Amino acid sequence: MELDPTDLKLLAALQRDSTLTAQDLGETLNMSASQAGRRRQRLEAEGYIAGYRAYLNPEKVGLTVQAFIQIVMATHTEQNARDFVRLTRTRPEIVGAWTLTGEADYLLRVYCADLTALNLLVQQVLLPHPAVSRVQSQIVMERVKPDAPLPV
């Protein structure tokens, strides 16, 4: 099903504030709360809305170091890829992982309590992994733009 302009407006509003009630959405969309609520439910059921979550302040919960880590694989076998992906899913400090084109095979986004914790992740977890050939880390100095809503 295609999205109409009202669907797009609803999605944009929920990306800005996922706690909006049906009443709030109805006011934003110029429709009744029940119509807005049904529309939201349809978009959830059809998979346009993948979920809701609270965005925490990393520093407030003791995660003072954010880094991006590029991984180059030792060999490109299906088993190595499976093993490495399993590792990314089991380490809580790895909050995002992507496969890439170009020199690196994977890009990891990590949050750690401090530089010592980041060093332990790199030296004791990533580098010793048999699928990994090379690791390159970039520590985030300042976040100049937070994760933004999708441009719908």
**Structural class assignment:** alpha+beta
Helix-strand topology string: HHHEHEEHE
Profile the largest sheet.
4 strands, antiparallel
Low-confidence stretches: none
The tally of beta strands, per DSSP, is: 4
Q: Overall pLDDT, averaged?
A: 96
- Evaluate the radius of gyration: 20 Å
Structure, described:
38% of the residues lie in helices and 20% in strands. With 152 residues, the chain is an alpha+beta fold. It has a 4-stranded antiparallel beta sheet. Helix 2 packs across helix 3. The longest helix is centred in the N-terminal third of the chain and has 13 residues, at 33-45. The relative contact order is 0.15.
Short précis:
It contains five helices and four strands. The protein has a four-stranded antiparallel β-sheet.
Write the layout of secondary structure elements.
Blueprint: H1 5-16, H2 22-29, H3 33-45, E1 65-73, H4 78-90, E2 94-99, E3 106-112, H5 115-126, E4 132-139
Antiparallel strand pairs: 1-3, 1-4, 2-3
Helix pairs in contact: 2-3
List keywords for this structure.
4 strands; single chain; elongated; 5 helices; alpha+beta
